[in-house]
């Protein structure tokens, strides 16, 4: 190669290299507002895990800001609710008959079931409340339900600790045993189930905004039908109906908490299997159900 032709050859190589880089950059781009594939969507969601945790932690335990007692109400309110239900259902209606340690039974139900209700009522609001963020930034919309569910789980922890203290100090005493450690996997499965439920409710409410006014009524039915302050066995004596009612995830979660905390027993394998099916099934179904309509979130006026 002659000395004079070298610069021309170098220019051609540089042009080819620039063109190749430009083509690679263009190939990596995707249209704004389109739904990515599920693996890509999961990868982008994982990349924002630090933001999810920071957002959940910053907003957690903040529902009572501005009140004189502050976060004390996170513990006091469930206890006052339990007192009301104890007077009405335990004393007046006598639903406590046949239930060992009814006070602890009631405290666990009234304190821990609302976390499931919030997965529905609060999940219905996550897209609406995050619409400005959706319109201003590009990110997987699933960030909002995940951050909300994580925040709700953090909010539940003080109440759960208060439950453990109360059932231990109030007669009849439920003293700590190693079975209390099983609270951790139960709480984890409850979190996964709640997250899947939030995904489902968020998408439905985005398509049907009027559902925001209907979800609270539906969760009330769920609350009263989950054995919060009574036992199924007292009112239902048909084994098939009882078996069907046992598939209620709300009742199942409360029963497993009560077994570990109050009665020092390990929940049976059937309960673990059903709760695992509910949690993983709801999580996977809810996530895919939410992802399918990724482009539509935040576009309402």
Structure description:
The chain is mostly helical. About 70% of the residues lie in helices and about 0% in strands. It contains 15 helices and no strands. Helix 5 runs antiparallel to helix 9, helix 6 packs parallel to helix 10 and helix 9 crosses helix 10. The radius of gyration is 26 Å and the shape is globular. About 0% of the residues have low confidence.
Helical/strand content category: mainly alpha
Instruction: Outline the biggest β-sheet.
Output: none
Q: Please write the string of helix (H) and strand (E) elements.
A: HHHHHHHHHHHHHHH
Q: State the total count of DSSP E strands.
A: 0
Low-confidence segments? 25-29
How does the overall form come out from the CA principal axes? globular
- Helical percent range? 55-70%
Topology at a glance:
Elements: H1 5-28, H2 38-47, H3 49-59, H4 73-92, H5 102-112, H6 114-121, H7 126-129, H8 131-136, H9 143-169, H10 183-207, H11 215-224, H12 232-235, H13 239-245, H14 249-261, H15 269-292
Q: Brief description of this entry?
A:
The protein has 301 residues and is mainly α.
Supply database-style keywords.
301 residues; mainly alpha; 15 helices
